[in-house]
Write a structure and sequence with these properties.
single chain; alpha/beta; Rossmann fold; eight-stranded mixed β-sheet; 6 helices; about 30% helix; globular
Amino acid sequence: MKLNFGLSRLRWRVRRRTRPQDAIDLAPEARPGPLVDLFTRIRTIPGWFTYDDCVHFHLVLRMQELMDMRGDMLEIGSYHGRSTACMAAYLRPHETLVVCDAFAQPTDDVYPDRPSPEGLQRNLLSMHPQLDWQQVDVRVGLSRDLQLGEAQFRFIHIDGGHSQAEALTDMQLCAAHLAPQGVMVVDDYENAYWPGVTAAVDAFLAAHGDFTILADLNRHGAVGRKIYLVRK
């Protein structure tokens, strides 16, 4: 089924606002909805995935569900699993969530608290006790060594290496495995600290006429944006 719900021609651009990245504004009388409930739980996991990101992922993944678009999901760079937990919330029976992270292996990006596959599993199961762990395929290693075979994905989140070469390599790998009308999300677009990501995205779009920008979204409290690309 083609993912044709009017968003493939829509380019969202939201003005940047500043506030703590985990802030959620609710009127005193407001009753928390399912998205607030989801983010309230996953925000306990270390990471930079914001409430805005949670809403944006929900919009795309929910529309895929409504259009009966089925398929696996892929994440490159999970850290401790905050964004992974959001994606897992939309995992349906007979679908697989593939997660690739370097974990304790050396990388150019230095983190004070390195994640582990065991910690990722604990975090995901604590957020989703009913999750069938057989549906989660954790790959330990660098994405440049990731072997995906004949796999195709409907939704991909890229938050791995932030150099131009690493980001472009990840995008090219993912493009080869993205289903028609699938969505590929790249983190830290136009982040001044990671200019290589922006250069990689721009180079990728210039070379791949079968992709277009679905959404280019700022996030409260974050420096860079997430850019959403859709295969035509």
